[in-house]
């Protein structure tokens, strides 16, 4: 399990700027976790930012969350999806807004991240070890260091291509070699900055290290579960969106199968089943 030496943080950042946690997110989380939480107040907080509200409604009507008929307001989304799901969608939009800076070249990344988060949540209903909401959060945040490094290094896209192709080295080792840091480290630091649970931030730091599935790695079972679910989700989403990035799947599928006590055939059955459901939802949307 990788850990961070706090005295080395500035060196690892290498001039990278991590966005602070948005005030609206803190206000929403505080209200939603009150025993007498008001859906009216929650809807008003979200609707104060027209772009945020529009993004939440758009995502609520996607194949991942659609209940059949379209929702037309934040109030309707709250009524149909519940507080936790809507908070997840808010985090999704805030993350996109803070990291993309209207860079439409990143649209493919955000589509993938949104689907990965939703699929992680669905996988958490099938496989044990974590909650649906925690799985969603991890699926959304685990690669959030990528757009941050994309802004910092003009040639970072080339680095990603190289890291995706290489199966002889860990993904993050390629990044470290070229840039002296990697998206797992940056994502970990951002997760801490945004107040995410330790199980999530630790999993982000180690999500390309499949040795964590060995006994005695020091990483919690829930963090290992999150890493395993994300690898499965990336396989599903990569096939669904035709991204064709299979390097990490080949490196980690055996370890993930062993962690869940399944065979690789079992994993493939789960992949095929969720692909069928996603495709059916897309056609019905």
Question: What key attributes describe this structure?
Answer:
285 residues; mainly alpha; Hypothetical protein af1432; 2 domains; 0% strand
Task: Explain the layout of strands and helices.
Layout: H1 9-13, H2 23-32, H3 39-47, H4 50-60, H5 74-100, H6 107-126, H7 132-141, H8 145-152, H9 156-165, H10 171-179, H11 183-193, H12 198-205, H13 221-240, H14 247-260, H15 264-284
Helix pairs in contact: 2-3, 2-5, 3-5, 4-5, 5-7, 6-7, 6-13, 7-12, 7-13, 8-11, 9-10, 11-12, 12-13, 13-14, 13-15
Pfam families: HDOD (PF08668)
Protein name: HDOD domain-containing protein
InterPro entries: HDOD (IPR013976), RNase_Y/CdgJ (IPR052340)
């Amino acid at each position: 399990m990788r850990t961070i030496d706090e005295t080395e943080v500035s060196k690892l950042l290498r001039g990278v700027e991590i966005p602070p946690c948005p005030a609206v997110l803190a206000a929403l989380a505080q209200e939603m976790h009150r025993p007498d939480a008001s859906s009216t107040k929650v809807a008003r907080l979200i609707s104060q930012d027209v772009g945020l509200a529009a993004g939440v409604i758009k995502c609520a009507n996607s194949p991942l969350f659609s209940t059949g008929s379209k929702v037309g307001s934040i109030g309707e989304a709250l009524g149909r999806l519940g507080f936790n799901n809507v908070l997840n969608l808010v985090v999704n939009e805030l993350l996109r807004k803070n990291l993309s800076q209207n860079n439409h070249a990143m649209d493919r990344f955000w589509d993938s991240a949104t689907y990965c988060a939703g699929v992680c949540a669905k996988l958490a209903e099938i496989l044990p070890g974590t909650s649906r909401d925690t799985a969603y959060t991890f699926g959304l945040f685990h690669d959030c260091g990528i757009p941050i490094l994309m802004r910092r290094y003009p040639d970072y896209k080339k680095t990603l291509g190289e890291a995706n192709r290489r199966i002889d080295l860990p993904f993050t080792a390629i990044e470290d070699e070229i840039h002296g840091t990697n998206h797992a480290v940056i994502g970990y630091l951002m997760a801490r900055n945004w107040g995410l649970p330790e199980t999530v931030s630790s999993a982000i730091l180690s999500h390309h290290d499949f040795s964590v599935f060995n006994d005695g790695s020091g990483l919690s079972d829930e963090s290992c579960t999150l890493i395993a679910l994300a690898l499965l989700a990336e396989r599903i989403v990569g096939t669904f969106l035709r991204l064709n990035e299979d390097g990490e799947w080949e490196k980690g599928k055996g370890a993930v199968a062993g962690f869940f006590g399944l065979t690789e055939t079992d994993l493939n059955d789960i992949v095929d089943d969720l692909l069928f459901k996603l495709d059916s939802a897309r056609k019905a949307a």
